[in-house]
């Protein structure tokens, strides 16, 4: 299970949080949904998370920070964040959804032995994929996964 315990605190995080808050507020307003403190605390924790995460690890992180919300609230808010285009849902071979901020397109390297997930930029693949004609379909983003064995597992 991915742990969301690595947090980043810097100017970029603050800027990302401000943009995400504006976007989430507009999304909630457009759908006539409540703007609760719980939803915005979950958003803040998601932005601070520097790794892929799952709903349970996010719930645990919030709990450890002293912010107690129900698992249902965490799951429902993550789904809203996905709907708002702030978070992406990722389905790897683990059959458990993991999430990440929906910032830039990148490739995931997934170790089939230990489950480690690493991100790499593949600009040349992105360029080729963006040039592909998809009749009547307008893609939002591309998700690419390469499965194999990481260096750590190979050395064991």
Parts with pLDDT < 50 across at least 5 consecutive residues: 1-8
Q: What is the succession of H and E elements? A: HHHHEEEEHEH
The counted number of beta strands is: 5
In order across it, which strands form the biggest sheet?
4-3-5
Structural class: alpha+beta
Radius of gyration: 17 Å
Beta-strand residue fraction: 15-25%
Structural overview:
The chain has 156 residues and is of the alpha+beta class. A three-stranded mixed beta sheet has the order 4-3-5, with no helix packed on it. It has a two-stranded antiparallel sheet with strand order 1-2. The model is unreliable at 1-8 (pLDDT under 50). Strand 3 (107-111) and strand 4 (117-120) form a beta hairpin. The chain starts with 10 loop residues before the first helix and ends with a helix. The protein contains six helices and five strands, in the order ααααββββαβα. It is globular, with a radius of gyration of 17 Å. The protein has helices at 11-30, 37-48, 55-64, 71-83, 123-130, 151-154; strands at 87-91, 97-101, 107-111, 117-120, 144-148.
